[in-house]
Amino acid sequence: MKQNLTKLTPVEQVTGLTPQQEQAALLLASGESVTDVASKVNVNRATIYLWLQKVGFKCFYNQQCQIIQDNIRNGLFGLYGDALQALKDTLNSDNEPAKLKAAMYILGKIELIDTSQQDPVEEIKKLCTTSAFNDIDDYINFDNNKFDALMLENGLSE
C-alpha cells in the first residue's frame, strides 16, 4: 500500500511515517512495552514488530532514543555537585553506605561520558579525511576545500 506523497503533512514528509507510526515510536522510546504501545495506537503487537524492521521507523525510533539519552546525560552533569556533596557528607558522617553507593554511581556515569572531542581543528580534519583499505584500492584522501569551508564556518580561519 503506497502513500500518496502529495497528501503527507510536513512531519510525515520528513520521517516518511504515518502519525500512528510516529506515536508508536515515541511511546516505545519512552519505555512503553510493545503490548501497551500496540493497544494505545490501536494495532496488533505483530504490527509493531513489523514496523521495528522498517528502516524509516527504526531511524525515527533511534532518534527519539538519542534525544532521551542526551537529556539523561545532561541531567547527570547537573547532579555532579550533589554527588560530590554526598561524598563529602558521607566521608564526614558515621556511616551512610547507600548514600555513598548512589554518589559513586553518579560519578561513574559522568566518567563514562565521552569528552574527547576538544580540539575543533582535529575534529574538522577527521571530517575531511576519507580512507579505503581493500584488495583493489588503498587510499587516504583529504578534502582541502571541505576543510577550508568548515574552518571558515566555525570561525577558525578568515
Could you characterize the architecture of this molecule?
This protein is mostly helical and 158 residues long. It folds into 3 domains: 5-58, Arc Repressor Mutant, subunit A (Orthogonal Bundle), CATH 1.10.10; 71-112; 120-153, no CATH class. Helices cover 66% and strands 6% of the residues. It has helices spanning 10-15, 19-29, 34-41, 45-53, 55-91, 97-112, 120-127, 144-153; strands at 129-133, 138-142. It has a two-stranded antiparallel ribbon with strand order 1-2. Strand 1 and strand 2 form a beta hairpin. It is flat and about 65 Å long. The model is unreliable at 1-10 (pLDDT under 50).
What is the fold-level CATH name, i.e. the topology of the largest domain? Arc Repressor Mutant, subunit A
Please indicate the count of domains. Answer: 3
Profile the largest sheet.
2 strands, antiparallel
Helix content: 55-70%
Element-level helix/strand string: HHHHHHHEEH
Strand content: 5-15%
- Order of strands, main sheet, comes to 1-2
Q: Unreliable runs, pLDDT <50, ≥5 residues?
A: 1-10
User: What is the radius of gyration?
Assistant: 24 Å
CATH class of the largest domain, please? Mainly Alpha
Number of strands: 2
Quaternary organisation of the protein chains: single chain
Q: Kindly state the mean pLDDT as a whole number?
A: 83
State the end-to-end distance: 53 Å
- Give me the CATH architecture of the largest domain, please: Orthogonal Bundle
Compute the number of helices. 8
SS-based structural class?
A: mainly alpha
Shape: flat
